[in-house]
Write the structure tokens for this entry.
Amino acid sequence: MDRAKYLNLATYRRNGQEVRTPVWFAGSGARYYLFSAGEAGKVKRIRANGRARVVSCDARGGITGEWFDAAARLVDDETEIQQAYRALRRKYGWQMYLTDLGSRLTGRYAKRQVIALELEARQPAVEDGG
């Protein structure tokens, strides 16, 4: 999964319904990091429930691997946020720099939310057709 360009992140609504979103991600140590707009649905769902599943995917969310259960949390520690951005910039290079520049120019950079994912025991999740 580390070599994949995208992850399909599945988070859960309060009613238990799964919502899948393809995202950029980068590994750092035992964690994976991603970022999102601070008021995005996935951020709200993670705030309410840290349960998640992930799988490598293409840009449109087409699954290319096996699902893994994960614990997701919102990152608020500045040191960890910078660690996450370093990992993302290493992985995505000029694409991440352009994304950052665009976000800064439009005022969205400061409103981003970094998310940390920790895979649970690196065991594939049971596919439930969600």
